[in-house]
Amino acid sequence: MTVTQELAVATASAPLATLQPLGFGHFMAQSDAVGQTLLVVLLAMSVLTWAVIALKGVAQTLQRQRSRRFLDRFWNAASLQQVEADLAAPATDEGRDPFSRLTQQALQARAHHARHGTSRLSDAGSAGEFVTRTLKKALDEETMRLESGLTLLATVGATAPFVGLFGTVWGVYHALVAIGASAADGPGSLAQVAGPVGEALIMTGLGLAVAIPAVMAYNVYTRRNRVTASRLDAFAYELHTFVAMGQPLGGGTLPAGAAAPAASAVPAAAASVTLTPPATATRRASPIAA
Questions:
Q1: Closest by Cα among 42, 5, 87 to 214
Q2: pLDDT at site 270
Q3: Can you give the pTM of this predicted structure?
């Protein structure tokens, strides 16, 4: 009897269970509560990941559009009073962009210090120092806003492959146990081992499918946030100059025949700006990428 005939006889005499088609459905039907729980965890991670990706993508698109429109109005304004009147228009906090919120905080800090002075410990210092502290606090708040949701993406990207790997190890273990239990009926074959082990590898593939989008989205949004934060720093430096030191929004040149402002009009402590200007601080173009 040839080898081909022996394989045909072995296939014909094999139990019906061994001839069932293998795949994801068969794997889930044979898995226990642990394997099904791991699958549910991976599905939940995937749903949350794509929800965060979609929400942050839409939010960042709207934020860039609003920032571009505000910065156009800001640099074309004749004075800070015009900017303040523009910010006084009704708008929800979610409907504003980081640059307008930063400007509003600085203008409110200047008005607060002019009205209340140093009556409280939190208001101690000159007007320039108080505006500087307010801008630093506002920058920290904007950074926290930008980083919302990134913790979830980082967690999913770091843990999803291991969750899938654990499901694979668990599936291979149960497959080998089942093969060992059926070895009493006769010697096992490669088909009996390869099928269940191959099905168990599905969990590793699912873990990678969940982790890869999360890691890619995390890297993209982290870079965008870093660029936005650097542009906010540059804008905060110029805003501090306008608000605390009383310089005009134009190029800073006075009309012909106009007298320079008196030295007493500028607070003494405000003359030294503590915010370090980045290299792009002197640009007057809109700092929002297209």
A1: 42
A2: 37
A3: 0.68
